[in-house]
Amino acid sequence: MTSDKVFDQASPANDFMTAFRGSFTSTLRWHHLDALWERLRERADAGWYLYAVGEPPPETPTAAAGVLGFISQIDQLLRAEHKEDYCGIVYADDLQQPTFVKIYDPHNLGVSCGYSDNPPLPGWVLSLVPPVDLPSTRVLPRNRRRWWRRLFG
Predict the structure, then answer these.
(1) How many other C-beta atoms lie within 10 A of the C-beta of residue 129?
(2) 80 Cα distance to chain centroid
(3) What is the pLDDT of residue 103?
(4) Could you state, in order of their start, the residue ranges of all structural domains in the chain?
(5) Strands, sheet with 124-127, edge to edge from the N-terminal-most edge strand
(6) Ranked by mean pLDDT, which of 8-22, 40-54, 113-127 comes out on top?
(7) Would you say 127 and 51 are in contact if contact means Cβ atoms under 8 Å apart?
(8) Tell me, what's the pLDDT at 106?
(9) What was the pLDDT predicted at 149?
(10) Which label site among 20, 85, 131, 137 has the fewest CB atoms less than 10 Å from its CB?
């Protein structure tokens, strides 16, 4: 069975890839990101999978305390390293009731919105669907790997 056929059948991998390829809305301004974080904090115990692309995908959801810690740490990282007056690098399937969130690394943006034959993968994914190992087009920088492992060692 080829890898393409795996996604032709009902499976957790298909569920994740369908969600991953779905429609997303950007948190264009920083206050939109603040509102998204608040909605995620309110649902921190919903069964979120936190996935750092380039690391093995988690097999179990993260506890609420881990989700809250991640939100705090990723918010600090994005604000420190994305020196723009807009956000625009965090996308959710639904800004009001998110179930899937893509966070792009400020140092690997490429064309994260719009059309591209080879769009970059997000740096991190929060999902209520168990993730699959996304084919990484880049080596995860060591500083990002250390940052992730410090959070979830």
Answers:
(1) 19
(2) 18
(3) 95
(4) 22-152
(5) 25-26, 90-92, 100-103, 124-127, 49-52
(6) 40-54
(7) yes
(8) 81
(9) 78
(10) 85
The encoded tokens of residue 136 equal 């990484």
Instruction: Output the pTM of the full model.
Output: 0.79
pLDDT of residue 11: 64
Could you tell me whether strands 90-92 and 100-103 are parallel, antiparallel, or unpaired per DSSP bridges? antiparallel
Report the distance separating Cα 100 and Cα 102, nearest Å.
Answer: 7
Distances 152 to 2, 62, 67, 99, 148 between C-alpha atoms, Å: 33, 10, 10, 21, 6
**Cα 13 from Cα 151, distance rounded (Å):** 26
Beta bridge partners of 50: 126
pLDDT, residue 33, reads 95
Neighbour count for residue 90 (Cβ, 10 Å): 27
CA distances from 27 to 24, 95, 102, 107, 115 (A): 10, 8, 11, 18, 18
- The residue written with tokens 């080879």 in the block is 118
Indicate if the pLDDT at residue 110 is higher than 70: no
